[in-house]
Amino acid sequence: MITLQVNGELRQCSAGLSLEQVLAELGYQPRLVVVEFNGAILLRQAWPSQPVMESDVLEVVTIVGGGS
Question: What is the pTM of this model?
Answer without folding.
Answer: 0.88
